[in-house]
Amino acid sequence: AQLRYSVPEDREPGFSVGDLAKDLGVELRSLAARNLRLVSEGGQRHFQVNLAAGLLILDSRLDREALCGQNPACSLHLQLVMENPLQLHRVEVDVLDVNDNAPQFPKPEVVLEITEVANPGTRLPLEVAEDPDMGSNSISTYELSPSEHFTLSINTRGDGVKMPEIVLEKALDREKVAVHHLTLTALDGGNPVKSGTVKVTIHVLDANDNPPVCDPPISKVHLEENVPVGTLVTKLNVTDLDEGPNGDVEYSFKTSNNAPGKFTKLFSLDPRTGEIRTKALLDYEESSAYEIAVRSRDRGSPAMEGHCHLRVELIDINDNSPEIVLTSLSSPVQEDATPGTVIALIGVKDSDSGDNGQVHLQIAKDLPFKLVSSFKEHFSLVTNGPLDREKASGYNITVKAVDSGSPQRATQKTFYLRIADVNDNAPNFSSPFDTAHVQENSLPGTSVFSVSAFDPDEGSNAKLSYSILDNGMQDIPISTYFRIDQDNGTIYTVRALDYEQDKVFQVPVEVKDAGSPMLSSTAVVHVFILDENDNAPTVVYPSVPKGSAFHQTVPALAEPGYLVTKVVAVDADSGHNAWLSYQLQETAEALPFQVERRSGEIRVAQALRESEDPYRLVVEVRDNGTPSLSASVAIVISPEENSVQDFAKSLDVPKSSPKDTNLTLYLIISLVSISLVSCVMFALVAARC
């Protein structure tokens, strides 16, 4: 929005300029919450905001003449900034002139000379009075005290300045009156009217009766700014019809009300030739035109003078680069900001005029931002697409300002915009399925496996915590078997594991971040229990109490190879730990029996002796684990003459061949091979998944 107010100069501080709250349509109580503040475009602060009343008030007394000089329009440009949402308002305050300055002449007394032979109608230019006020408060007219010989003529210059001249109305006679004393009064148009006076003394002289004449009396010259020092501006064309010293003209500057004396610092005048040259660099931005008054005086006695008025108008060239002003910047900005979100308020200035002062802003096209024109010379930088902190955590934004001059001038300003993270990425495991192995009977607290997850967010949004889910896949909660370190994802055993009870566990692991809302993902770790030789073989046949022996009869005439009985044992372990072998414990005397190593069959090895004493055998069953575990059973074999064949005898077969003896071994090898192939295939499938 743009507001416009006016205030007379010389008002006391605290004077109310305008009701901001009403004109902006904002509730009074929200001004402080929205941090309404004033940003002046000038270096000096003249206004302030009364947040309690919502008013724009004066901070210091204004002097229009000091602020704007002779400019017809005097405006102060302000900027109001409000937040939540971020808004920028332009305020223009017109400073109104009051009649606080009286007209004043450069000198208290003016001495003029006129020859007695001057013809009626001869004009004597006078010094113009100066009044810093403008408009109707500036000089309105001049008045001359009554005189028999002189009247006052007022001419208006091209720039509107009234120039008083004394006009000879009646021929003079120096012998009657040699000196005339007049009073010139300058009046302004204010209310009440203010005035200033100067004493005018006119000396009547003889002889030199032709003054120098400037042709034309008022001229205009166009000159580019920044021309080299010493450039010829113009050469005055002045003629004097007199001869000799009376026609020899000398030139000098005459101050005027347009910055009195200032042009003498910028221009030089050759007193003999009338050439006007530059003696300093001219700046269009400082002043676009200069009014130069030149006095031409001859060397007659009395000397006569003429006046030339020259207006030098400067042509602007593109000698000022645009200026970029970053009024406000909202950094950081959330990565989920919607398109059109205001990021920064940018102003631009160019002291040149016309096309040289027309400025265009631009930024790189590959950025997710764009510039939107708010109003003249003010732009908003807004988002033009989605932001993703994980792809770009910040942007170096270079704003380039280019004017429309020839050649073009450009300025650029770079600022950094940081993108703030939001929790828009769930943590991810390196693999959704993992495989781990742990030895059975490991101590509680044994490290099993470490899962790892990654979250591309930052800060608390990337702080991860791990936990084990009880999803009912096991009969007993999985948390009674395993625990996980919530910080590093290491899985530990809670208690000793028994391969014979559980051979594999599926451990579901969940990872969560600390963002809001919280995001999570899961993975499954298959924990395989490795068997340990922790179970000794158990003899299931013959089944006898511990410390007792199994009694078996055998025919006294049994031949070698006769099957006496068979020892059957099992081992709760698996694999090599469950491979069993049978053997007879050594005794002091040789026994006529042998036991098959793999099958546990006890057979007659040689003819029995003729004795009625029974044979005592101890069969030891040993597994193939490390260390090897064993069990034994005692068997007492009694030979009998007419022994009836029992169940064990029914198993009597002729002496087995080596092929029959190794059948069990081949079967075990086949089973183990099939198991190994199955494990390898399972591992390959798991790896591909």
From TrEMBL:
GO molecular function annotations of the record: calcium ion binding
Repeat in keyword set: yes
Protein topology in the membrane: Single-pass type I membrane protein
Keywords attached to this entry: Calcium, Cell adhesion, Cell membrane, Glycoprotein, Membrane, Repeat, Signal, Transmembrane, Transmembrane helix
CC per GO annotation: plasma membrane
Location of this chain's protein in the cell: Cell membrane
Top-level taxon of the source organism: Eukaryota
Protein's GO biological process: homophilic cell adhesion via plasma membrane adhesion molecules
CDD domains: Cadherin_repeat
Domain Cadherin, first and last residues per copy: 6-105, 106-214, 215-324, 325-429, 430-539, 546-656
Transmembrane segments: 663-687
Free-text function comment from the UniProt entry: Potential calcium-dependent cell-adhesion protein. May be involved in the establishment and maintenance of specific neuronal connections in the brain.
Protein name: PCDGM protein
Originating organism: Atlantisia rogersi
